[in-house]
Q: What sequence folds into this?
C-alpha cells in the first residue's frame, strides 16, 4: 500500500499550486508586477505547459531531488530543506525517545498498581497531557525553567540546552497517549491464561510482568509508533515557532504567509514521506516483536 | 436499554465530570453577553496590562481589554468551530465509511486508500495546506479541520458496517425486500452510533486543539476576534512581564479539551459493558 499512497501524495502536493483560487503567479508576484516578470515566473514554474507534462516533470525532478526554487528565499527548496530538516528531525526524535522513556514505565506502574492512588495519579497526568495545548505547555515551561529558574535558555538554537524544553514540550502529549495505551494493553495481557500459569509456577511477580507480559503488551505500543511520528512532526511545526527554532515548521508557516508555493509543496511532500517511512518502520518493528506477524 | 446506558454513564465518574465541564462551557458560550463584565473588544489603553485584580479578575491585555470577557466570548468561537468542523468531518466520513463497509469490493479499496492518503499527512500540516489554498480565517479553519478529520469517522463507520452487515437482522431486512438505502439508514447506522459518539467527543477536543494551534500561528481567527489561540499568540510577547495573558486562555483550552476527553472516555465505558464490569 505504501507506493500507491506515495504516488497519491505526490499528486496532491503537485495539485496545491493548481487548487489555489486565482492565478498563483499573480498571487506570488503581486498585482503590480510587470508582464515580463509574470511570463518569466510562469515559464520557470512550468505553468505554461499541459498539466500531465507538468506532473511528469514534477516527478522527474523529484527523482533528482529537485523540489524547485523558492520565490522568496531565491534558493533551491532542497537546499533550504537540507538546512532545516535535520533540526526538525532532531527535535522530533528527541521528543519521541523522551515520550516512550516516560510513558512505558508510567503505563506499567499504573497497570500493576491498578485502582490505587498511583494509578489514578498516573492516568490523571496522562489525560491532562492529551488535553494540554503543546504550545501553552511550552510557555509554562519557559516561564518556570527559563525565566524564573534560569536553568535553560528561553528560546533559540544551539547545543543540547536549547533542545531540552522543546523536546519535553513536544514529547509530553505523546507520552500521555502512550502511557494510556501501555496501561490498557498490559491490563489486557495480565488477565490471559499464560500469565496465570506463569504466576502459578511460582515465578516472581516482576519476572512475570517483564519477561512474559511486557513483550505482548508492547505490540500495540509499537503500532502507535507510526501514528506518533506523524503527530510529533505536526506538533514540531508549532513548537519550533514557540521556541524560535530554525526548522521546517517555521519555514512552512513563513512560506504560507508569503505565498511561496514551491516551499510549501516541498516541505509538505518531505514531511508526508517522513510519516510514511515512520509507519513502515513501525510495521517492521511490529513484525520483529510479534513472531506471529510475517510479511 | 436506554435507561441502562444512562445508568452506566452516571456510574462513570470521568463521564459525569467531563459532561459537567462541557455543559458549563456551552452555557458560558450561550450566555456570553450576560456573563462577560465588558464587551470583548472594549479597549482602555490606560488600563493596559493590568494584573488580575477585583476590577479585572483575570487582568487585561496590551489594549486594556478584559481577559475574562475575551475568554468568555472565546468559548463561542472554539465551540462553534468544534461543532461545525466535526459536522463537516462526519458529513464526509460517515457516508463514505458506510458505503465502503456495506458494499465492499472496489469501493471499499478506494475509500481505504483515501483514508491512508489522508493519514499520510500530519493533521496540522494537512490543515496548513488547505488554509494555504483557502486563505487564513475561521471559515478556512472549519473546512480544513473537517476535511482532515473525516478519515477517522470513515474508518470507524466502515468497521462497524463490516461487522454488522451479515447479522441476522440485516439478512432478515434484506429477505423482506428492504432497499439498500433503508438497510443502511434504518438498521446499520443506528447500530453504529455508539463508537461514533465516542469518537465525536474525543474528536471535538482535538478540533479545539488544532483550531487553537492554527490561530496561534496567525492562520485561524483574525484580530480582533476573541479566540483562545490568538490570545495566546498575542500574549507570547508579554511572557516576561504579563504571564496572565497566556496563562488563562491556555487553562480555558485545557479545561474544555479535558472535558471532551473525559466525556469520550466515560461514554466508551458506558457503551461497553465488558469494560465497565471488568476491573480496570
A:
Amino acid at each position: 500500500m505504501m507506493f500507491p499512497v506515495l504516488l497519491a501524495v505526490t499528486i496532491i502536493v503537485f495539485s496545491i499550486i493548481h487548487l489555489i483560487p486565482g492565478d498563483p503567479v499573480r498571487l506570488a508576484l503581486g498585482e503590480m508586477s510587470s508582464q515580463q516578470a509574470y511570463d518569466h515566473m510562469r515559464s520557470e514554474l512550468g505553468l505554461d505547459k499541459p498539466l500531465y507534462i507538468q506532473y511528469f516533470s514534477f516527478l522527474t525532478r523529484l527523482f533528482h531531488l529537485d523540489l524547485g526554487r523558492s520565490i522568496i528565499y531565491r534558493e533551491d527548496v532542497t537546499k533550504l530543506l537540507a538546512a532545516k530538516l535535520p533540526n526538525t528531525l532532531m527535535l522530533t526524535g528527541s521528543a519521541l525517545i523522551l515520550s516512550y522513556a516516560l510513558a512505558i514505565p508510567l503505563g506499567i506502574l499504573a497497570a500493576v498498581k491498578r485502582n490505587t492512588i498511583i494509578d489514578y495519579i498516573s492516568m490523571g497526568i496522562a489525560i491532562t497531557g492529551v488535553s494540554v495545548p503543546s504550545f501553552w505547555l511550552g510557555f509554562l515551561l519557559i516561564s518556570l525553567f527559563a525565566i524564573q529558574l534560569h536553568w535553560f535558555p528561553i528560546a533559540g538554537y544551539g547545543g543540547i540546552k536549547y533542545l531540552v524544553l522543546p523536546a519535553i514540550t513536544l514529547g509530553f502529549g505523546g507520552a500521555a497517549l502512550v502511557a494510556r495505551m501501555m496501561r490498557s494493553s498490559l491490563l489486557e495481557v495480565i488477565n490471559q491464561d499464560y500469565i496465570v500459569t506463569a504466576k502459578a509456577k511460582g515465578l516472581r511477580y516482576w519476572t512475570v510482568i517483564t519477561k512474559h507480559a511486557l513483550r505482548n503488551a508492547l505490540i500495540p505500543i509499537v503500532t502507535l509508533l507510526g501514528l506518533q511520528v506523524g503527530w510529533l512532526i505536526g506538533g514540531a511545526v508549532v513548537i519550533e515557532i514557540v521556541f524560535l527554532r530554525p526548522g521546517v515548521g517555521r519555514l512552512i508557516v513563513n512560506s504560507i504567509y508569503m505565498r511561496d508555493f514551491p516551499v510549501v509543496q516541498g516541505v509538505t511532500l518531505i514531511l508526508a514521506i517522513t510519516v510514511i517511512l515512520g509507519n513502515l518502520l513501525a510495521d517492521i518493528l511490529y513484525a520483529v516483536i510479534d513472531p506471529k506477524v510475517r510479511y | 436499554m436506554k435507561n441502562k446506558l444512562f445508568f452506566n454513564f452516571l456510574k462513570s465518574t470521568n463521564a459525569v465530570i467531563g459532561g459537567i465541564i462541557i455543559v458549563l462551557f456551552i452555557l458560558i458560550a450561550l450566555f456570553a453577553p450576560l456573563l462577560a463584565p465588558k464587551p470583548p473588544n472594549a479597549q482602555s489603553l490606560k488600563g493596559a496590562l493590568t494584573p488580575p485584580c477585583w476590577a479585572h479578575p483575570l487582568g487585561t491585555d496590551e489594549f486594556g481589554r478584559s481577559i475574562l470577557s475575551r475568554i468568555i466570548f472565546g468559548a463561542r468561537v472554539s465551540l462553534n468551530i468544534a461543532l461545525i468542523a466535526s459536522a463537516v468531518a462526519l458529513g464526509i466520513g460517515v457516508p463514505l465509511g458506510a458505503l465502503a463497509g456495506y458494499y465492499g469490493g472496489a469501493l471499499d479499496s478506494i475509500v481505504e486508500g483515501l483514508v491512508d492518503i489522508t493519514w499520510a499527512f500530519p493533521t496540522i500540516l494537512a490543515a496548513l495546506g488547505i488554509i494555504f489554498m483557502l486563505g487564513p480565517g475561521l471559515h478556512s479553519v472549519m473546512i480544513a479541520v473537517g476535511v482532515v478529520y473525516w478519515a477517522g469517522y470513515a474508518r470507524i463507520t466502515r468497521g462497524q458496517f463490516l461487522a454488522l452487515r451479515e447479522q441476522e437482522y440485516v439478512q432478515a431486512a434484506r429477505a423482506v425486500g428492504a432497499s439498500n438505502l433503508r438497510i443502511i439508514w434504518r438498521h446499520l447506522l443506528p447500530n453504529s452510533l455508539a463508537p461514533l459518539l465516542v469518537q465525536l467527543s474525543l474528536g471535538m477536543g482535538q478540533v479545539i486543539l488544532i483550531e487553537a494551534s492554527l490561530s496561534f500561528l496567525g492562520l485561524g481567527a483574525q484580530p480582533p476576534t476573541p479566540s483562545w489561540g490568538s490570545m495566546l499568540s498575542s500574549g507570547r510577547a508579554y511572557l516576561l512581564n504579563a504571564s496572565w495573558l497566556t496563562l488563562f486562555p491556555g487553562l480555558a483550552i485545557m479545561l474544555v479539551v479535558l472535558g471532551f476527553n473525559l466525556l469520550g472516555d466515560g461514554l466508551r465505558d458506558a457503551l461497553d459493558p465488558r469494560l465497565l464490569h471488568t476491573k480496570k
Observations:
- Residues 157 and 193 of chain B are 9 Å apart (CA to CA).
- Chain B is about 75% helix and 0% strand.
- Chain B has a mean pLDDT of 89.
- The radius of gyration of chain B is 22 Å.
